[in-house]
Specification:
single chain; alpha+beta; four-stranded antiparallel beta sheet; 1 helix
Amino acid sequence: MNRPILLPSLFLLLGACLALAQTPSPTFDFSPTGISGVISISPIQGGPTRQETPDAKPLSEMAFEVKQGSREIKIFRTDDSGHFRVELAPGHYTIVRKDWKAAVGSYGPFEVEVAKGKMTNVEWKCDSGLR
């Protein structure tokens, strides 16, 4: 066996292994980022509020736009219980009801700040305009 070649080869191999062991591996953050919550509407009937009757209800099956400035980023829809969840990149957003043109009622705008690696939980109330 040729010892003069074997020994330097072993040192090169050992050095390569040490260099690979010291290289930091990339870290990935798989935490969802965005907003989730519930949207309700109130009042649900005109006239004075009655103690035995609920004055608010979930805003179900309603489409909302997520905007940054004048740019539409995403559209989401509430479920039967008024809940929603939408993944978004970190940043500042404005949420408004999609295609709302009526003069009665208020469905936003809602402002929200989304932080990196965090789902921001919100509870928003819309005004039906009933009095």
